[in-house]
Amino acid sequence: VLRGENMGYKRMGMTTLLVFVQGAVIALALALGTGIVGVAVATLIDTLLTGLLFLAIVRSYVPWFSSARPSRGEVRVFFGLSAWFLIWRLVIQLITASDVVVLGMLSSVEQVTSYTLTKYTPEALISLVAIVVGGVAPGLGGMLGAGNLHKAARVRGEIMAGTWLLATGAGVTILLWNRSFVQLWVGHEYYVGVVPSLMIMLMMIQFVLIRNDANIIDLTLNLRSKVLLGMLSAAISLAGAGLLVRYFGLGITGLCLGLMLGRTVLSLGYPLIIGRHLGLAPAGQLASAVRPGLAMALLFAAALALQPMLATDSWLVLVAATGTTMLATSLLAFYGGLTAGQRAGIVR
Fold this sequence. Notes:
With 348 residues, the chain is mainly alpha-helical.
């Protein structure tokens, strides 16, 4: 309701506070030796607390928030739409959580551990992008609802450009310094290597861009095509990853390649769905991706060449190095990969 009213920012401070509260409660559960049961109870308490606090915030800022009896027609439409949303939630779970299951079943638990630890920082990138896009979504939904498709198309382009910029800066930084991070965090034996790290990074960036378009499709309420493509993508991803891990013995690299192959269905299909709704030609969308794609390839290649020469055993040096790398890389990507119009949009 807050997002729909363009007041999602009203809960931002509370959301941040609750992250620390949940962390503190989980830490307390672990300190008391309650194990997984304690962690589950701590998470449940945090969920209930979040619900109660959000309810209080909504009641404070949205005067019309209350209960009312809907008509049968409204119920039918609502459940019809909700069914597609529910199926999509199951599909996205399959897309995002099947990697560790496939790797654990067809490879080894040890590889699952190394894979999970190495992809920790790339996954944090997904969460950061989701926060940014989630903040823009209500305004974009208003443009679509008002039929202002030209402006909506421009905003979608700015979202994708901003996501690309963030992903490129973070991607280069992670490729250069993730080995040192994992070594300082849990030990060098858990780092999976340069090529698997690159595959994990590319897989995460592909997923971030797909999820951007998936969120925009939600605003158009054209869910059927989105969900059916998602089901096809999940099936191809699982089959491809299983084949490359089990029969070709490619481990983490094969897992990532298989998942990316399946997700290509979404990388191609979702822009086509949005293009039909916003009047964007496929050729134009493809052309706009050439320059950013080349810039990212060059920056990632430079990172792979420099990575063996960069390492630190100090947290202080690592924090300073990652911050400096992120800033420098983002500036290079900003001027090298984006047009003047895209740069102006991001600055605005």
